[in-house]
Specification:
Chain lengths: ~300, ~300, ~300, ~300, ~300
């Protein structure tokens, strides 16, 4: 995720980092060269004039924009749903931490409470590692007692197995006076929500937008762009390559952004900053139990990219 | 469902599997031949020139794109709601499995718990079989005791009857110390959610998008495509068939995708991978109770189709 | 609701039943004749040439399509919300039936349980009759004891009064051991949901899309269609009537579908199949208590219309 | 809110009442006269020909339609959310009335129950009066005991203060056998929902769509309409005023409808029928406790406007 | 937030305050001067005629409008979700205040209740200060006892730490007769909702719309506007600068509004009136406990801006 201070409208033209322009340059270069060639040949192929006019591009540009718009909305919805799920994770772990103190009657500094908080933090990191296919063992060893850390490392669905530990902790809290089955069920309700969050993230990560859409839109966008110079050369002349690349840039870039946002849990520049969010959850949970905060989230600097 | 690794933008033009192109080839072939004929006749019918210009196609192409866009969104929403329901099924069965351990006070390896888990897994497979109109008896015999398997096989709404079994199991758990009516109601709340999931899937499977839409859009899309060459022949000449087929491909393919996604529980390439999801639910539930995992979900290979 | 097997793309052109075409034929006929007249007069009125070109129709066609698209989405949302409410009714009555067995400790065959189920079924039929303004007395006499049936027949908001009966049944179940205030409140929560369902249906039935929209769109659609031949006659000549009717058909049909879906509880061909849903709820509730199923929902036949 | 029987498609052209046309007539008259003047001057201003062609209007008409479409959707969503909130109010008061009988064990005719029902009805009327800035004192005196009516009349946020009364009533019901803290909390949960309903209505009433949108769209719509005749005069000649007014009517009317729906709690013809809904809630609540219904909601007559 | 009385349609053209026009004037001035230059040079650059026609602008204007429309909807959704969250905050604090009286059995004037209310009010102000990066210490000292105010001032996530205080207050209320673990859990459920509200606000404040969108749309909008005069000069002549600025104003203003609404918790004129909402929450909570209202929210005056 890229955070930037607001910029002057004029300087925003020259932003390089965080734009998709760099990765598109080769394709736009090909498109530019092709357009130049078509202008040079005045739109002929093997001496036959290609009789394209702007008319079919008008007809079709609208359809293309609508279809791209649909794909883009679907991708953005996935990105934003992913963000909402991680927001819910923050809310829910905070609620569980609060309940572990105020419902059980434990004091803030209780050993038990800290153990519970650490499982919650480990849960968060495990979810991140599962979504990014990275190894959770380092974080597990940092946060959990050795034996538990070991058994979780073996598990296939780590966050789910950790939730059994959370459930057992709550079950054991029944020895506290005033913590009865009602309080247990109240905390268990928040575990249900955690289960929904894990499943929601898995759903986004495992089910892409149907592949057929990608194929159809990809083909349509590129064919459209590569036919465009034939349609424009008669009326626009030598300015055709510039206009073609300008229109092409917008369509191709829109498709590329949709592609990047579709899988929001990756590590591309516009993906969600799961690392920063894990650190933030750790910070706020530790503050709730009055522990010193481990590290600060780095301050906002211009063009800073969080991962 | 088709899962594929990201591909180079250029190689994506030549994807065959997973595209709807193969099934559309005959129609596009007819359209191509018709266009060639119209070019050959220079847009005349029985010596009368058909005086179509691109203008009405511009007017109409926009309306068509909007209506197609609506149909497509409605279909995609059904696809995605179906996926969400199966995601909720995963979350909910996990929650019930957790509660069967941590609320009842049963140990992980308890016979009772395993019986409960097996009913949950059978529930999942029954829902799949009901949605796909296939026979559930094999899975039922694998997972349930003989007599129960037999009586469920007879039932019309199998998942619902299985839920009575789940409810009875929970009722019987009242003999465990610490599992009172409150815990029972907490688990019963998750059965309510299962009921919503079953009903949600039945709703999508039994209520298509109103038939009138299909008829209207189908007629409009094809009439538009078959009139298009008359409108383009004067300005585009010999390139008319190519452009007609290109525009026709996009509109017709969009309609075909919408048609396929509308019923997401089928077995077409872009439908939901219910089999893979059933296996995954079985795997994660067995891991929760510490049983060895039965089989691995096959790894992602290029162009792999899950059903 | 119309259910049909998938059809060959070519045969779908000739579908008559379930299309809105039949009811639109008179209007389209008027439009056709008018277009023929305009072509014959070469677009003059009282010897003055009407100087319309396609340009304003392009400008305006887009706006029209957008506004129609909005009206259509709003109508479809109402249709689909109506379907969701009836789906929720299915889920909720199933949940109550399950709870009436597994929470109370009654056996499946208990008299009391059957009485409860019958009130639930009567509730469903009453809601249908209220929404369609038909008489509920026959169904009430079939399902309820005479005196109760009589008093409900007198009531203005029958489903709501029946819910008091459901609530009283639950209150009386407090004599069962193990069924305490907690179980009562759990079932009462499902009554709250029933209340939301009834109110949701009443909302859709009593509040149409603001009338001003209908008037504005209706006027715009028809004026557009009747002015269109003047705009097309110069460039399209004798083919004007065909194109006019084709474009007119799409716009007018879209408005007609939106009109039909707006009130989804009626008995027009594309409305919701409330009768079939009532029968289905009756079937599944009776199966839950192990009673023989009363009648089968008729199998899907080509072009079958459920009401 | 305007309720009308379905009308013949042809008679709908001449609907006057409920259309926004009457209030727009002066503006459309100005537009018509201006267009006539421009036709008369053949599009010149001080002898300079204004060289506008339809092209920029095509470019811009699309953008305008999209922006208007956005504003319209946002307004309609507010209207429909307002309706949903009042629907939820109906559902929720019904649920509370049912609980006041079946959870407490009071009989229908109990004094206490009637007092509770009357506070619920007063709550409904107070919300209406707050949203419409009218005086609640008459309704309060009709429904509540003198002293309470007086103290509520003084309050700033009347429905909220009434909810404390509802909460106190529920607290006092604890003396009933079988009505314990669980039943109390179940009814309290419905009070939470009432709180959400009040706040939701206040949100819609106090936060309009950002003012900047109104200014921008208003300026754009009117400038567009007043420039249009210059763009059409060359190609359309003497028919320019008619077409200008036709296009202008659609855009201006769409803006006017959006403006009216944006604040759904007012008393304009298309606003929500809060009076009718209050009466309906009163009727259904009284029926639940078996009281005679006070008055009938007037039957649907053609073109009847509910307020 | 700007609140204004409805204005005459004609006077709305000359609204200055609350429009984004003032901040856009320099850019539109540049655009105007450029257009004048291009008209003067008759669209030539270094004696080469730039052969742009309106055609590519039609193609592209539609795409641009769609993309802008998407960005605008996404921004408006963030604005409206922010408003909903603050509305939920109002509802939830009211509910907690009600419960603190009617569930605990405290009287309205109880010291304890007032302390609880003050923590709720402090919570509200802390959230505002966190979202706006302002200092909460003044409000904390006004509302809380000295020691607590001090410790909260030190905290990083102040509202979350305050919620522990709320939880402790509820835990201590267990000494009241009739306030058992069930009542505690009911109030705790509302604390969960508060947690969701805080996290929801943090989500909107910390995660902007992906930066790539801003860059892409910004570039496209401005390039489009600055190329436009070349495309219009041939057909529109001396009126080109006016039309260019008119079209440019709409596109640029739409982007600017989207930019302003995207972060709804700021202090720009169209942002949410967090100060007014804090005051309103304080007022209504104090009224619930029967305390005199501290200050009136200033009445609506024409063009009044709330912050």
């Amino acid at each position: 995720m890229i955070l930037r201070k607001k910029q002057h409208w004029f300087r925003m033209f020259f932003v390089w980092h965080g734009s998709v322009l760099p990765q598109l340059l080769p394709r736009l270069g090909v498109l530019f060269l092709l357009s130049v060639l078509i202008v040079y040949l005045k739109g002929t192929l093997y001496e036959y004039k290609v009789p394209l006019s702007p008319a079919p591009f008008t007809i079709f540009g609208i359809a293309l924009a609508l279809f791209l718009g649909f794909r883009n909305s679907a991708s953005y919805d996935r990105f934003w749903e992913g963000r909402k799920l991680w927001g819910a994770l923050l809310n829910d772990t905070r609620s569980l931490a609060r309940q572990a103190i105020t419902l059980t009657g434990h004091s803030k500094n209780d050993e038990q409470v800290l153990a519970f908080i650490n499982i919650l933090i480990a849960f968060t990191y495990c979810l991140k590692h599962q979504l990014r296919n990275t190894s959770a063992s380092e974080d597990l060893q940092r946060l959990l007692p050795g034996e538990l850390a070991h058994s979780i490392t073996e598990a296939k669905y780590k966050p789910i197995v950790l939730m059994i530990e959370l459930g057992n902790w709550i079950q054991k809290a029944r020895i506290m006076p005033g913590f009865d089955s009602i309080s247990q069920v109240a905390m268990d309700g928040n575990l249900n929500k955690l289960s929904d969050i894990v499943g929601g993230c898995e759903r986004i990560a495992s089910t892409p937008i149907p592949y057929t859409y990608q194929v159809l839109l990809h083909r349509t966008v590129y064919l459209y762009c590569f036919l465009l110079p034939f349609g424009l050369v008669d009326s626009l002349g030598w300015i055709t390559p510039l206009i073609t690349v300008f229109i092409g840039y917008t369509f191709v870039a829109f498709e590329a952004i949709a592609d990047e946002l579709e899988e929001p849990f990756g590590t591309e520049p516009n993906d969600l900053a799961l690392n920063a969010m894990c650190r933030m959850i750790e910070t706020t949970l530790l503050e709730i139990v009055g522990k010193p905060l481990p590290e600060q989230i780095p301050a906002l600097s211009a063009g800073h990219v969080f991962d």
